[in-house]
Amino acid sequence: MFLRQKLYNLNIMKLSFHGGTRRVTGACYLLETSESKILVDCGLFQDCEECSDLNFEPFKFKPSEIDFVFVTHAHVDHVGRIPRLVKEGFSGAIYSTAPTKDIAALILEDAMRLEKRRHEDFYAPEDLEKAMKLWQSVPYGEVFSRNGLKFRFNEAGHILGSAFVEIWAEERHFLFTGDFGNTPSVLLPPPSSIKDMDYLIIESTYGNRTHEDSKEAMVKLERAMEDIVSRRGTLMIPAFAAERTQDILFLLNELLLFKRVPEIPVFVDSPLAISITGVFEKYPSLYRTEIQELFLKHPNLFRSRKLQFTETVEESKKINDVPPPKVIIAGSGMMAGGRILHHARRYLSDPKSILLITGYQSGNSLGRRLLEGEKMVKILGEEIVVEAEIRQISGFSAHADSLQLFSFVEAARDNLKRVFVVQGEEEESLHFMQEIKDRLGIEAEAPTPHQEFEI
Question: Helices (DSSP H) in 167-243: which residue ranges?
Fold first, then answer.
């Protein structure tokens, strides 16, 4: 018995990184035990020149050998390659929370239409259908056992249904944060407090930056509304379909309810965001306590009198006929595609208008270039002179900042053996990795693409 236990303790596990390495997008992590191969997330690479090639590149592992996929949340950079995984042979079980499954079904259907090459679909409808049949929902907080391992999903506070994934295997305890929620969130509870993991795989989107106070962010939103009314211009808000759109709708409703801003037309010009708002209305029990109580009194948290959901292309085009002042909330959040581009092409040259950036903008995205002051941009093949005012609100970010991330690692320092820093651009990842090493004395890595570690 002693010899068998000793050999068991010497089992080598492998952890490899197939996305989300020194870049924000493409999260995909493979954990190999003696009995199972577990993938945590399998997302699209986004907003880079080589992203399409990376998405179509064959996996560096055999999808048919993967036993489980654990999904931290439903953003496309965490779920977008799952049907592709199925197309290439995966037939195991997929686990996530129920809202993540519901939102992912909508996002993956949308991605199927968008992610194409000239002669090749990224995946077929039957691949998506099979993926959803393999997908199982699990509640927060319960421990499940499969193939000699245990796992649990905990609140991550990032978007509805987002989770930290805990995995116990062969006397080792892993925690994958996925995207780590910013506190306080507009709608969600704070991330779970977990301190006893051995190995931590943690995001670093804001690994070297701090956010402004959320109250200041609300003031900036209010000022943008007031200014657009006085200028009689158009307020454009590029927003992610999941969470950011719903946060903004809730906050605009709050401003209108307390008569802090004038009533003007507000358009949500994103079919995906409209569908996801329906999912949000399905799970009010997952809001933070104060929002749950408010929802009982006011079940139309995301809908105001002058709010219009524009689902069809014809309805979207008619927004142009509505005289300013007006507000347009549209995807995509990083201005990499979607209907926001049509509005930007029309209104960026208008000095009365405002483009309000409320989320993370990756390296070479249009949103990042506008924030950095570019005055001539090409949108949908047309050169546009930028005359509109460009503003940014960082307090609405759904990602934790460097202080919040560091505090989480610091609270677990007594048990941590190693930290792997992922889902940040190279500068942010390396900075956060070095902070962990220098200030906490914990072994830390910022993996490179497909790098493998023995655990």
Answer: 214-231
Q: What is the pLDDT of residues 61-95, one digit of tens each?
A: 999 999 999 999 999 999 999 999 999 999 999 99
- Number of domains comprising the chain: 2
Would you mind telling me the total number of residues written for the chain in this entry? 455
Domain-embedded: residue 2: no
The end-to-end CA distance of the chain, in Å, is 23
DSSP per-residue letters across 228-241: HHHHT-EEEEE--T
Half-sphere exposure of 227 (CA within 13 A, CB side): 18
Q: How far apart are CA 162 and CA 74, in angstroms?
A: 7
Range with the largest mean pLDDT of 5-19, 295-309, 370-384 = 370-384
| pLDDT tens, position by position, 309-339 | 999 999 999 999 999 999 999 988 889 888 9
- Would 446 be classed as within a structural domain? yes
Helix, strand, coil share of the chain (percent; to 5): 35, 20, 45
DSSP H/E element including 88:
none
At 114 the three-state DSSP class reads helix
Does one domain contain both 133 and 269?
A: no
pLDDT in the model for residue 110: 87
Domain contains 405 = yes
197 and 227 co-located in one domain = no
Task: Give residue for tokens 């300013």.
Answer: 324
54 phi-psi bin (left φ>0, alpha ψ -120 to 50, beta other): alpha
pTM of the model: 0.91
Asked if 436 contacts 444 with a C-beta cutoff of 8 angstroms, the reply is yes
Q: Could you report the per-residue pLDDT of 368-398, keeping only the tens digit for each?
A: 999 999 999 999 999 999 999 999 998 888 9
Strands 452-454 and 14-17: antiparallel
4 lies in some domain? no
Residues 255 and 326 in one domain: yes
Q: Is the dihedral of CA 3, 9, 10, 11 positive or negative?
A: positive
Please compute the mean of the pLDDT values over residues 179-186 and round it to a whole number: 94
